[in-house]
Amino acid sequence: MTSSFVDFHCHLDLFPNHEEAILECERAGVYTLTVTTTPKAWPHNNELALKTRFIRAALGLHPQLVADRASEIKIWESYLSQTRYIGEVGLDAGPSYYTSLNLQKQVFQRVLTMCNQVGGKILSIHSLRAATMVLDMLEKHLKPDRGRVVLHWFTGSKAEALRAVELGCYFSINAEMFKGDRHRSTILSLPFERILTETDGPFCKSNGKTVRPVDVSVVVNLLAMELKTTPDIIAKNILSNLNTIESFQ
Ligand code: MN
Questions:
Q1: Ligand 1 mean position to 240 CA, how many Å?
Q2: pLDDT digits (tens, 9 = 90+) for 143-194
Q3: Could you please report the per-residue DSSP string of the chain?
Q4: CA angle 133, 123, 28 (to 5 degrees)
Q5: For 16-58, how does the pLDDT look when each residue is reduced to its tens digit (9 = 90+)?
Q6: Which residues lie at CB < 5 A from ion ligand 1?
Q7: Cα(10) to centroid of ligand 1, in Å?
Q8: CA of 126 to the centre of ligand 1 (A)
Q9: Which of 229, 230, 236 is nearest to 4 (CA)?
């Protein structure tokens, strides 16, 4: 049984009904990376994901929570050997989180250093208003052969995107990213073989409704339209990119 679509960044445990959200992905065959915002959520997410065909749980410590939860990096470390997937981690330099930026950097450095040390991890990384800082830290603390990096909802400049490509990064694209001309043209500048899709549900809405992993087909359609090809070709390309990432040792 193979999946038809890929949602490489979603928070299934933050939907009103976590188990129902999982069942929906299973029924529809949507490969879903369910990221966590605190390592305390890891055991339950992992336990549910292990019973499925298409859900993979990621171990995270969200940069927006670091101000209050930096000490949980110890819990994060204690679970590291249980998972191949890391997220949501990264930096957020937006106005609401700027004051914790130094603490965020300390936590993110620890995350990257540990991933570099153990190797073989696949990371979903948040970089809001912090693209250059994230890329600087990746360059310094995670060697390209020691981890696979997927930049989630990347909103950096075209030059930053190019630098990320050179560092070996992938990008998970959601529907919101097509809304501004600047971001849309950045997406279109990315190499085909570095693109994945995501929903970031339940944080994204479409027509007032919370976006779910099954809605990732909308992103596939948008990519097809923009790249002047068919949704089928895009979907196959995304699955092939996913296979490339997954086969990384
Ligand atoms: Mn997220």
A1: 23
A2: 999 999 999 999 999 999 999 999 999 999 999 999 989 899 999 999 999 9
A3: ---SEEEEEE-GGGSSSHHHHHHHHHHHTEEEEE--SSGGGHHHHHHHHHT-SSEEE-B---GGGHHHHGGGHHHHHHHGGG-SEEEEEE---STTTGGGHHHHHHHHHHHHHHHHHH--EEEEEE-TT-HHHHHHHHHHH--GGGEEEEEET----HHHHHHHHHTT-EEEE-GGGGSSHHHHHHHHHS-GGGEEE---TTS-EETTEE--GGGHHHHHHHHHHHTTS-HHHHHHHHHHHHHHHHT--
A4: 130
A5: 999 999 999 999 999 999 999 999 999 999 999 999 999 999 9
A6: 88, 200
A7: 6
A8: 7
A9: 236
> Is the peptide bond between 231 and the residue preceding it cis, with omega within 30 degrees of 0?
no
Residue 226 CB: number of other CB atoms within 10 A? 14
- CA–centroid distance, residue 11 to ligand 1 (Å): 7
Q: Round to whole Å and give the CA distance between 23 and 173.
A: 23
Burial (CB count within 10 angstroms: exposed 0-12, middle 13-18, buried 19+), residue 8:
buried
State the DSSP string of 125-174.
Answer: EE-TT-HHHHHHHHHHH--GGGEEEEEET----HHHHHHHHHTT-EEEE-
d(CA 107, CA 53) in angstroms, rounded, equals 32
